[in-house]
From TrEMBL:
Name of the protein in question: NADPH:quinone reductase
PANTHER family: ZINC-TYPE ALCOHOL DEHYDROGENASE-LIKE PROTEIN C16A3.02C
SUPFAM superfamilies noted in UniProt: GroES-like, NAD(P)-binding Rossmann-fold domains
Top-level taxon in the UniProt lineage: Bacteria
PROSITE patterns per the UniProt record, alphabetical: QOR_ZETA_CRYSTAL (PS01162)
An example Gene Ontology molecular-function term: zinc ion binding
Pfam families xrefs: ADH_N, ADH_zinc_N_2
Gene3D superfamilies named among the record's database cross-references: Medium-chain alcohol dehydrogenases, catalytic domain (3.90.180.10), NAD(P)-binding Rossmann-like Domain (3.40.50.720)
Residue span, Enoyl reductase (ER) domain: 10-306
Encoding gene (name): qor_2
Amino acid sequence: MKAIVIDRYGDAQELHEAQLPMPTINPDEVLVKMVATSVNPIDWRTRMGRSRAGWNFPIVLGWDVSGVITTVGTSVQQFKVGDAVIARPDTSSDATRGSYAEYVAVKADKLALKPANISFEEGAAIPLSGTVAYQVIVKQLAVGKDDKILVQGGAGGVGLFAVQIAKAQGAYVATTASAENHDLLRSLGADEVIDYHQTKYTDILHDYDAVFDTTDDIENGLAILKPTGHLVSIAGQPTFVQQSGHPSAKHWWLHPNGQDLAAVAELVAAGQVKVVIDSEYPLTTEGLRAAHLRSESHHAHGKIVITIAEPPKLNNTVM
Ligand SMILES: NC(=O)c1ccc[n+]([C@@H]2O[C@H](COP(=O)([O-])OP(=O)(O)OC[C@H]3O[C@@H](n4cnc5c(N)ncnc54)[C@H](OP(=O)(O)O)[C@@H]3O)[C@@H](O)[C@H]2O)c1
């Protein structure tokens, strides 16, 4: 099968097309014929060697799956051949199971059905970013009706999901973004959008209940919270003092699982959350190199999607 791999750590030029053996599946896994995937900052950090996991080369990057099941493992009950699915798959020790590939093996507990009214490209944008946004807003910060929350970095892949999920919870949502993204964020429900190039949000926001930090700006985020408030950062590591203070800060790592992913997919299917796609590139050497450079710019608005194949016909004969 075709995949985009790296044979050593380095810049975007290290990404190149290769032919790899088809993945084999364990009893608790399914094989997915990929239609689309997406790029996250962890991809290029790993490419640069900043997230070394002791993997062997070649490494297949990418952790968003959107496609159709072609084979199910013997112990998989909930999914069948022909199901359109999305997933944030586990990483594997041999590092050849990333999603920049035509086929990906995924453990069944990481899968969610793709709602029929969203495209495979939209589906590819949801797993990593949407699930971490959902876990922070709904589970970690437990944002509720009329709570005041600041989402730092509202125009990013995670931030756009977080703003909308917080609105769906009934919160008052402030967010930071460059001026060109303000109309987009307001159209998606943000109550207050602050241009962080012009205005220090610590000058105008006070007594907030919650902060979701996607930009590693913990000290400033803590400064706008009530003593009972909480900050969760997915981008920075709070100090011991920040963790044990009032307000408090903690770091959160995504816990991939099919249930939380399905909850986000339902919000999208119901129209409560819109998927914003920044750009699309094909699964080619040039496509992935350009997609990584776009992500490294730190100014993508929404998700960078990689298109892999035409959607197969959704029936039980897909192989
Ligand atoms: N811990 C985890 O499990 C986990 C999971 C996912 C992501 N992450 C991390 O979370 C961070 C965000 O991820 P992402 O996918 O959302 O990244 P992204 O899509 O690349 O974020 C790009 C956005 O960041 C905004 N931005 C850049 N600097 C900013 C600043 N100083 N203030 C406000 N906004 C700023 C830009 O907005 P403008 O163009 O409007 O300036 C742009 O829209 C990354 O560091 C990523 O590695 C962690």
